[in-house]
Amino acid sequence: MSSTADVAQNLASSSRRDQPPLTTIEAAVLASSGTILGATATHAPTNTTDTTAATASAAASHDASGRQPPTAAAGAAELTSTKMSLYGALKRFPDFPIPGINFIDILPLFQDPNIHRTLLRALELQVLQFGADVAGAGNAALAKPDVIVGLDARGFLFGPSLALQLNSSFVPVRKRGKMPGPCVEAAYEKEYGTDYFQMQEGAVKPGQKVLVVDDIIATGGSAAAAGSLVKQLGGDLIGYLFILEIPFLKGRDKLDGVPTVTLLETDD
Ligand SMILES: O=P(O)(O)OC[C@H]1O[C@H](OP(=O)(O)OP(=O)(O)O)[C@H](O)[C@@H]1O
Ligand SMILES: Nc1ncnc2[nH]cnc12
Which residue windows does the record flag with biased composition (Polar residues) (predicted)? Predict the structure, then answer.
């Protein structure tokens, strides 16, 4: 396996259409995304794609003299601060919207343009890493999503921006009764209630590769319902991407082993 420095270097120098070159930190985010941004390894079922495991050891690798290569060390420090700035922006509201729920508010991530930018870049890099893990380093493009599906409403805050960055379509999943024309529908339970999701027929074409994105996976009910709608439309559900996971609620268990990546996690 390449060292983090090698991976970061390759990524930093890789040319991507219409994209500025990756900075050291961006490359390092991708090179060791699991270590810093994704705590997915601990909780990932064995049959899910773990973007952490393959890179965590690289991030921790040392050179022959027993020291971390400077790029990796610098990258790790920057990554720690990246994660801390994203995580530190989250706010908690006990007993909202009902007693017993510790509500984690992701809206502050969008208040500061620097944090907003960092978030979008980290998500984009996480998708690229996801592609490399699913299809192999040289074939990451094979796992590039044709469609980003974002969930009503917080998945709309970053789904379209991410889709644009990836040159993918954006398609919404909405709560029942919000969209015109024929729709497919799925009922689901979430951490604090029951709801119905819909997608417009034809919004995803049969065989298109679809990545479902949302802010938070709690019990997984919302994400699983979205996945079932994608499949009803004939889409190829290649994965899920979340900003934040609440692992003790075991949402991943509802996702049928579909590859799932998260940037951050919290157990409170
Ligand atoms: O994993 P789960 O238990 O299903 O919970 C996660 C879902 O709950 C929240 O959405 P909510 O339904 O509150 O809608 P909103 O985005 O419109 O606030 C959140 O944005 C996720 O979509
Ligand atoms: N605890 C929580 N905080 C914010 N959004 C949520 N959606 C489901 N559970 C949530």
Answer: 1-14
